[in-house]
Amino acid sequence: MDSSLGHDEL
Amino acid sequence: MNAFRLAGDMTHLLSVVVLLLKIHTIKSCAGISLKTQELYALVFAARYLDLFIHFISLYNTVMKLVFLASSFSIVWYMRRHKIVRRTYDKDHDTFRHHFLVLPCLALALLINERFTFREVMWAFSIYLEAVAILPQLVLLQRTRNIDNLTGQYVFFLGAYRVLYILNWIYRYFTEPHFVHWISWVAGIVQTLLYADFFYYYIMSWKNNVKLELPA
Hints:
Chain A is largely without helices or strands. Chain B has one domain.
């Protein structure tokens, strides 16, 4: 999984 | 986005609004730790490096800009504004916050989701945010008269952390592959730091007495 997807939180 | 996440973001936003209200309208930063505010500015600067690279949503971009602008303007107010800076309780805000930065950076270099500049900075921001409240909590303990806005500011910040944990639990069960150990562990540590404050805050509210933390 692209870890940038996980950084959708503030 | 689930309700916990939205509620978490809103309490986070509310904490910033309360603090800006105190600083901008009352022209006072009494009881507020500049050290904590400087750490938050660093946290957001490190975390939102992808602001103009990775577009997630308009909501996400706007919120990031709000947190960046508000954290840096709060630091500016506390350091430079000629009325506000006089209310800063420098003598009691003595936590050596610089000593938090290096261990967090070292930890981020060791434990990250991927060894790239942005991922290391992201992990660094998560670790630093977890401990950034410490100077503020120490200052609160030393403050005899904690005013309502300062108490509310810290309460909303803590509430934001609790709601984020509920959000992760929800996402874990509803989104496949949603596993982020770094933010979960750091987030739980961060929330536990508020436990003591929450206890005294709720007690003071329940008994209708002024908030005071035991030294």
